[in-house]
Amino acid sequence: MKKKLSEELNKLIESILGSKLKTITAVSGGCIHQSWKLELEDTQVYFAKTTDLRKVGMLVFEAEGLKVLRHFANNSQITVPKVIAMTQSKTMSILIMPWLHIVSNNQSLLGKGLASLHKNSIKNNPGKFGWQNDGYIGSNPQSAGWIDNWGECFVKLRLLPQLNLASKWGINILENKKLISGLCILLNEHQPEPTIVHGDLWSGNCGMDPEGRGILIDPAVWWADREVDIAMSKLFGGFTEDFYKGYESVFPLSNSSRERIEIYNLYHLLNHANMFGGSYITQCLSVLKNIRLKYLF
Q: Which of 56, 233, 250, 260 is deepest in the core (most CB within 10 A)?
């Protein structure tokens, strides 16, 4: 990890923020971009992500997602960082946001805030599922497109691209043809309403502030079934019972939602297997087998 930014980028940051930089500290945690704490002489503090120009699309997609989440968020329950700037120098791209203090705290408002965001977005949904621009889930692409029915959208725009990537380590699309068509039908029977979802909701992409409000960062937004966020929250752990109680108190899930958790999380398991291999491959194969047996696909 770089320990400092270029002089060119420092001058660009100062021109955007209107003050001299006092200190720049590298922040650990990300595996795709480099992160920084920017402290200015006027005492303001900001957070920045930088990456080379080949990956500028990732930061553009993140900035777009943050703006959409902020639009639908209830600010008394949840905080989504404001995009101060999304720009680039001759060699680097940079995304600048306010510095947020993330602490361990009761997750009730995080759950309530996510539920309110989901609920608010449904009132203004486009009547179809998908997203207008190509995006990213981790470092892998997340396809653009609009599809009227949910099952076809989830399978064609999310599962199939990951299954195609997984052919490199052993997934055979033809052998899964019955499963693919079966999932389209099964998810269409569910008939959810299009909802803005965070899209990458694991515990590392959210938290709480000192006042107890939730915080959402690093989204991979699209219009989807809201259950995809709740399903992913259960994939890697880190969410407390307070989170789920908070969510249910604002926007209860249907009793059948548990039946779709494994299906929705297959997307993220495939993505992790395609990025990292290892035990994720074993998990994917196990989940595919379980789904086939459960639904006789």
A: 233
Active site residues: 200
Q: How many CB atoms lie within 10 A of CB 143?
A: 17
- What's the pLDDT tens digit per position in 73-129? 999 999 999 999 999 998 899 999 999 999 989 999 999 999 999 999 999 999 999
Q: Which residue has the higher pLDDT, 184 or 29?
A: 184
Count CB neighbours of 234 within 10 A: 17
As a whole number of angstroms, the distance between CA 203 and CA 122 comes to: 24
Contacts of 139 (CB under 8 A, 6+ apart): 32, 58, 275
The per-type count for the chain, helices as H runs and strands as E runs, is 10, 14
87 backbone dihedrals φ, ψ, rounded to 5°: -150, -170
φ, ψ dihedrals at 83, nearest 5° = -80, 110
